[in-house]
Amino acid sequence: MDGATDDDAADNDATNGDATSGDATTNGDATSGDATSGDATTNGDATTNGDATDSDDADAEPTPGVPDDVRKYDRFKKVDGAQYERVNDFLRERTYITAREWAIARLCADFRTETGVEMTKIGENLPELVPFMTDTYTPQAVNQARAAFEEKVTKAGATFLYGAMSDFFTADELDDLMYESTEVAKFLLEVEGVELSVEEELDAEDRISEVMRDVREASDELRHSEATCPNCGHEMSEADD
User: Fold this and answer.
1) Which Pfam families does UniProt cross-reference here (predicted)?
2) Cβ neighbours for 17, distance < 8 A, ≥ 6 positions apart
3) Which of 240, 222, 210 is nearest to 165 (CA)?
């Protein structure tokens, strides 16, 4: 368990170290606090789960100091009682993101306003919002986690598309790969509280398959025609191969 926790902190430092000179220590502390907070207790603060239960009670008193929209936030309830390390291990086995990055990326999407993301609110109320997070974060640490998530998604997307376009996989192998990836993505959505009907799942799978067919066709054309280097703009032809 501790090994996975250390990997999470190290991964965060490696991803964001260059861009966050002033806040690196702050973020490290927040990450370490969250990671070690898995404390072998089911979900850190018993009050977190208690508050979640009380919020469903019409007679329950609002939690002092907790904004109303935070108190009513109901994502991640399916992992009530889960330790951070267990969630993190699950994600590391199937994705490039950590539990910290997953949770904060979702919160940044849900607490976005016309003027930006409410990072202070997210950081100060993190244990109330996500059951397996047991420490508060600074706004800088929230921003770093969101940036790490976006960077990893971008790199993973480029890696996948290169594999799909480079003819390393047969059409059947690519279909299998997409099926497995889709299953993991749907599970994470369900954990967040998104209810997917059978029709919605089938429709999503059909649309993904259609996109991948277009990718295969485009990659065939690309490999047999002139292309432009994405870095220097050089027009490449068969003579450059």
Assistant:
1) DUF5806
2) 24
3) 222
